[in-house]
Amino acid sequence: MSRSRREVCLFGWHPHRDEQSPGHLLELRDRERAEVLLQLGSLLFMALALSRKERRYAFAVLAGLTMAALAYTWEGADIYMGIFLVFAAVDMMINLRAGYSTKETTTTLLAAYGVALIAVSPFWNTEWMKYSFMGLAA
Predict the structure, then answer these.
(1) Stated pTM of the model
(2) Which of 11, 23, 84, 119 is the most exposed place for a label (fewest CB within 10 A)?
(3) How far is it, in rounded angstroms, from Cα 65 to Cα 44?
(4) In this structure, are residues 11 and 34 in contact, taking their beta carbons and an 8 Å threshold?
(5) pLDDT (tens digit, 0 to 9) for every residue of the chain, 138 residues total?
(6) Strand, helix or coil for residue 21
(7) How many CA atoms lie within 13 A of 129 on its CB side?
(8) Cβ partners under 8 Å of residue 129, min gap 6
(9) Alpha helix locations (H) across the chain?
(10) 117 CB contacts (<8 Å, ≥6 apart)?
């Protein structure tokens, strides 16, 4: 394999090869464990960001970082990230119907997705990150 085609996978699993990637930083033998851990972490931080007003943006940044780490583990991670968007749409509809502001939900999700988009942008053009990046950018 030529040096120019060698790609870096930060969590030890590359979707197009069966062997370990040469540039892994965190060695996880099974990507499903990493997916569960990172999805639960992003869910936890997003729930804390939406429920705690005093540290809303700190938890939103942590949620964004765990969403970016999730995007680094699997090409289909944008499916998991779409769950937050479905929740946000339902929450905003309920709040608008009840006459409440949706500013907190909107700014929290924009902060989290903005951090995740910035964190995955260095590898946006690689074959293994293309779909997760497009899912975040959409």
Answers:
(1) 0.73
(2) 23
(3) 12
(4) yes
(5) 444 444 445 554 445 554 444 444 455 556 677 788 888 999 999 999 989 989 999 999 999 999 998 888 877 788 888 888 898 899 899 999 999 998 988 999 999 999 999 998 888 787 777 777 777 777
(6) coil
(7) 22
(8) 71, 72, 75, 120, 123
(9) 31-51, 56-73, 77-98, 103-120, 130-137
(10) 133, 136, 137
